[in-house]
Amino acid sequence: HKFRTAMTGTGRERLTGQIEVDEAFYGGLTPGKRGRGSAGKTLVGAAVERRGSRMGRIRMQVLASASAGDLARFLGATVAPGATVVTDGWVSYPPAATAASVTHEPHVVAGSGEQAHVILPGVHRVFSLSKRMLEGTYQDGMQARHLQAYLDEFVFRFNRRTATHRGMLFFRLLEHAVSAAPAPYRDLVAAPGAKERPRPRTGRRAQPATLTGQPLDRPWRH
Q: How far apart are CA 115 and CA 119, in angstroms?
C-alpha cells in the first residue's frame, strides 16, 4: 500500500489530443437507483487518450460529484489546455470544459439509439478492466477512502502495458518511491482512530513455567 502512494509520481504530464471522458460508480451491486445519483457508491472519473483505433495514456480520479465544478477540476488536472474532450453530453461538461480551457465534443447517448460503450469505447473498457481488477484480485475488499490508491495502481500498470523492458517498471517505481512523501500508518489504515490500540501492560511480568525436562531418546517412538 505504501508503494501505491508512490505510483502517482510527480509532475505527470496532462493528456493531449482527443480524449474520452466519462464517470462511473464503484462499490458493487447495491439496491436502489442506478447511474448518476446512486447512493452508497463512489463516483470515479476517467480520461482516455485516443490514438487512432488504440488507447493511449489514461487518468482516473475519485470525484465528489458529477457537478460542473468537480468535473472542471478533474479536467484541469488531467487534460492539457487546447485538447478535445469527447463526452456523452452530460449537462455539466460544457461549463466544465470552458473552465478547463478545452474543446468539448458531445455525443448524446439518450435518444441516439446507440449504447454508451459504442460511442465511448475506450473509457468504458478502462472502467471494465479496473473493476475486474478490484473484484477479481482484491475481492472488492478495499475501503472507499482507499479507492484512489487502487486506481493509481491500475493507471500505473495500464500506462506501461506496452513496455518492452519489464524490469524498468520496478526501477521507475523505486524512483518514485524515494522521492514520494512518507506514508504514515494512520494514513494507510482503513479507519484511523476507530479501533483502540492495545495498552502497554503495567506491573511486574510473571515468568512462564519452565519447559525443560528429561531429554528423550527418539521421542517419536513413544
A: 7
Q: Calculate the alpha carbon distances from 126 to 48, 70, 89, 222 in Å.
A: 8, 20, 19, 63
Strands 84-87 and 18-26: parallel
How big is the CA angle at 93 (ends 18 and 149), to the nearest 5 degrees? 75
Q: Which of 15-29, 53-67, 127-141, 200-214 has the lowest mean pLDDT?
A: 200-214
pLDDT confidence band for 197 (50 / 70 / 90): low
- List strands edge to edge, sheet with 84-87: 54-63, 42-51, 18-26, 84-87, 103-106
| Of 74, 60, 56, 50, residue with least CA distance to 8 | 60
Model pTM? Answer: 0.78
Name the CA radius of gyration of the chain, rounded.
Answer: 24
Q: At 125, is the secondary structure helix, strand, or coil?
A: helix
